[in-house]
C-alpha cells in the first residue's frame, strides 16, 4: 500500500473516532437529503401549480364570448413562467421574481406575485436547497474536519517523525487531501441523488447537469485545498480554525452581500414611475393618437388614404380605427422595448460587476455558475420577460388586425341601440390565437452561460494547487 | 478601576482580539453607511416623484381639457403613492428592496394595480442586504465566538488557569475579563449604529431599545460560549462547536422553518385574485348596463340619484363595474392577506426561541420595513384610492365638466407616517 493511501486511511480513522465529526457528517447528509426532498417537491408543486394556472388562464381566454376585438385587448391574458426541472437543485432567483404577468394592450405590466413577498419573512435568511447546502454549509464541515490535518501534526511535533520514517512531504499532503476529498465526496453524494430524481424529467439536459456537477466538484475540491493549505501554513490548530472560519465568513457570507451593494451603487436602476413617465413623454413626441393635430398621425392618415386611393376614412376598405390601434401599439411597443433594453443592460452590468467580485469569492462564482446552468438566473427571467413582451405584442396586433378587418368602420363608430352587437366578432377567433409557450434556454446556451464562473473556479483551483505545491516544498524542507 | 484598565490593555495586546474589534467596527460602519445610502436613494426617488408627476398629469390635463370629460380624466390620470422610509430603515432594509415604495394608481379597479412591483434586480436581492441587521444577526455572533471561545480554556492551555482561580477574587477576574470583551465588542458594533441613528433622526427610545437588544443578543452568544466552555474541551473544540451552533441557529433552522411555515400555512396564489377580478370586471360587457348600475347603486346609494345612462358610452358605468369587480374579490383579498400575516406571525413567534429570528423580526418591525409595514402601506393606498373614486365620481355621476383647474383639486397622497 502506498504511503499516500496509508496516510489518508490514518486520517480517516482519526475522523471516525471523533464523535463530533461523525455526528456533523451524518447531520449534514441528513440536511442535504431533507433539502433534496423539500426542494424537489417544492419545484414539482410550483411547476404543477403554474401549469394549472396557465391552463386555467388559457381556458378563460378561449371561453370568451363574441366580443369587440378591442375588448379582448383590454381583457388581456395571464401567463405564468414555468419552472425548469433543475430548479429543484438550484431555484436561483425564482422566488425573488414575479412569476405571473398580465398582458394587455397599451401597457407593459410587471411580473407579479413573487414568493419573496408571499412567503414567511424567514426566506431572507436563505432557502433550504441542495445548492445552498453545498455552497454554504459543506465548506464549513470540511473546515471542521480538516483544519487540524497538518496543523495538528505540526503542533504536536509528530510531523518530523513521520517524515523520518520515510513519508515524503508530498505523500503526507496528498494523503491528507485524499482523506478530506473523500469526505467531500461523501457529503456531495446525497445532493447527486437529487440529480437522479431530476434527470428523468423533460428539459433536464445532460450538458448543464454535467456542468453543475463539475462546478460543485471544483468548489468542494477548492475548499479541500484551502483547508489543507491553511492547515499547513499555520503552526497552531486554533489559528488554523479561526483563519479558515474567517475565510469562510468573508467569502461565503459577507462578500455575496457586499457585492450587490456595490453593484447597486455603480449601476442604479430607474424606477418604474420614472420609466413610465419617460415613455409617456417620448410617446407624446413620437405621435399622440389623442391629439387631433398630431403631425405623426396626420401624416399616417394621409399616407393610409393615399395607399387606398380614397379621400375619407369612411371609404377605406378596412376599419381605420383598427389601423390606428395597430400604429399606436407599434409606437408604444417600440418604446417598451427601448426602455426594457436599457433596464436589462443596467441589470446585466450589475450582475457582471458581482461576477467580477466573484474573482475573490469562489462562492459567488459558484452561485452564478450554478444558477446559469440551471437556467434560474437573471438571464432565465429575462428570457421570460422578453418572450412575454414579444407574445404580448403579437397577440395585441392580431387583435388590432381583427378590428381592422373584421369590424367595419361604420359599426365601430356607431352608437345606436344595436351597435354593440354589430361590433362584436365571433368567439372562435379567440381560439385561433396562439397560446403562450415559454421556450427555455437550450443546453448549449446554459452551458455557455455557466462558463465564466467555471473559469473563475478553475483559476482558483490552479492558484490553490500551486500554493499547495509550494507549501509542500517548504514542509519537506522542514525535515 | 486600574484592574479594568489593565484587563483592557491585556486584551488589546492580543493581535487576534484587536483585529476582531477593529474589523467589527469597520463592518458595522460600512453596513450603516450602506443602509443610509440606500435610504437616501429611496428618499431621492420619492422626492423626484412630484416633478415627474406634474409633467405627466399636465399632459393628461391638456388632453382632457378638450372634452372636459371627467371619465377620461379619471381613466388617464395616474396618482402617485409612496412609502417614505422610517428614520430607522437604514438599519434594517427588510422588504423595501423587493416591495415597491412608490406605486401609481388610477381610479380603476385597484386589485389589478396594487400588487404591481417596481424594477429591481433579483440576483442582487437574492443574497440579502448588507445592512446593520445583517451585521448584528449574522456577523456579530462570529466575533463573539472569536473573542470568547478561549476565555477560560486559553488560560488553561497556557497553564495559568489554576493559579488565576487560586488567587483571591478569582471569580471576579473572569467576570471582569468577560465584561471587558463584551463591552468593547458591543461598542465596536453599536457606536457606528448610534452615529447613523443620530444622523437619521431616530428617537432616543428606539435607539436605546436597539442597544439593549444588541447587548442581549451578544450576551446570548456569550452565554452559549460559557456553556460550551463548561464541557471542558480545548479552545479549538470550543470554537468548532460554537461555529456549528452558529450555523444551525442562524442559517439552517431559519431556512428549515421557512419551508415548514410555507407548508403549514398554504396561501392561495395572489394571481388567483387578479384572474378572478378580471373575469368579474369584463363580465359586465355581457350583461345589460342597467343591471350593473342597479347592483352598484344598491351598495353605493349615495350615487343612486345619478341620471340614467345615455345611449352612448358613459364612463360612470365603466368605473362602476371596475369597483364591483374589486368588491367581488374582497373575500379572497382578505384570505390572502390573512395567510401572509399568519406566516409572518408564526415566523415572529419563532423569534421567541430563536434569537437570530427574533432580533431580525424586531429590527424590521422597529424600522417599519417588515410585512406589517408593507400591508400598512397597502392600506394607505386603498384609503387613497377610495378618495380618488369619491373625487372623480363626484364629477362623473353628476355629469359635471372636468376642467383643467379641477386636476389641482384631486386628492393627494397624504403625508407619510413617522414613528
From TrEMBL, chain A:
What GO cellular component term, any one, is given? plasma membrane
Which residue ranges traverse the bilayer? 20-40, 131-150, 171-198, 210-234, 241-259, 451-471
Sorted alphabetically, which keywords does the UniProt record give?
Membrane, Transmembrane, Transmembrane helix
Family matches, as Pfam families:
ABC2_membrane_2 (PF12679), DUF3526 (PF12040)
> GO molecular function: any one?
ABC-type transporter activity
Presence of keyword Glycoprotein: no
**InterPro entries in the record, alphabetically?**
DUF3526
Q: Which domain of life is it from?
A: Bacteria
Q: What is this protein called?
A: ABC-2 type transport system permease protein
UniProt source species = Sphingomonas pseudosanguinis
Automatic annotation (TrEMBL), chain B:
Q: Which domain of life is it from?
A: Bacteria
Alphabetically sorted, this entry's keywords are: Membrane, Signal, Transmembrane, Transmembrane helix
Q: TM segments?
A: 132-151, 178-199, 205-228, 240-261
Keyword check for Transmembrane helix, yes or no: yes
Q: One Pfam annotation, family name?
A: DUF3526
What the entry lists under InterPro entries is as follows: DUF3526 (IPR021913)
Q: Name one GO molecular function term.
A: ABC-type transporter activity
Q: Where is the signal peptide?
A: 1-33
An example Gene Ontology CC term for this record: plasma membrane
Could you identify this protein by its name?
ABC-2 type transport system permease protein
- What's the source species for this entry? Sphingomonas pseudosanguinis
